[in-house]
Amino acid sequence: MRTGLLRILSSIWLPLAVAFSTGNAAAAVYKWVDDQGATHYSEKPPQGKKPPEVPIRSQPAPATSQGPQSGPKTWQQQEAEFQQRRVEQEERRIKKQALDQAGAQDRMRACLDARHDLHALEQQRPVYTINAKGEREYIEDKKRDQVRERLRQIVEQTCDK
Questions:
Q1: Per-residue pLDDT for 89 more than 90?
Q2: Structural domain boundaries in the chain
């Protein structure tokens, strides 16, 4: 008879205990700022106002790690990860340095080309370009000033001072 009574009581008390224990987790939390600029959080809104409710997480946030956690890492694993990060960082630095050098070489080539063309224009001899058909097209005097100004701008932009 005792076990029957215990079963009945446990079937009643257990759901009630669960319901009351989760009741506080579902309670609303309000946030508001008072006249002095202080922020307040409370389960009851201030008198005369209905501030917005603050959402409450009922479950913990999901783990942000990328893969299964098998427990704390050993110092050897931490050291290996650290060394891997150092190698990757050094590779990125070398790649960036190579790109910077290539860019510097391109600027140097553009500078030299622009200076050479500008020098040829400043001398009063005929200057020509090769068109798509492979024919020479001589630059006329009125266009010569425009080309000279454009080359001066290129020299200013690409050449180190």
A1: yes
A2: 75-158
Please give the single-letter amino acid code of residue 3.
Answer: T
d(CA 37, CA 94): 51
- Is residue 123 predicted with pLDDT exceeding 80? yes
69-88 exposure pattern, b = at least 16 Cβ within 10 A, e = fewer = eeeeeeeeeeeeeeeeeeee
Bridge partners, residue 41, by sequence: 31
- pTM, entire model: 0.39
Examine the pLDDT at 60 and tell me if it is beyond 80: no
The CA distance from 29 to 42, in Å, is 6
Q: How many alpha carbons fall within 13 Å on the CB side of residue 31?
A: 6
pLDDT of 144 > 70? The answer is yes
Torsions phi, psi for 62 (to 5 deg): -65, 150
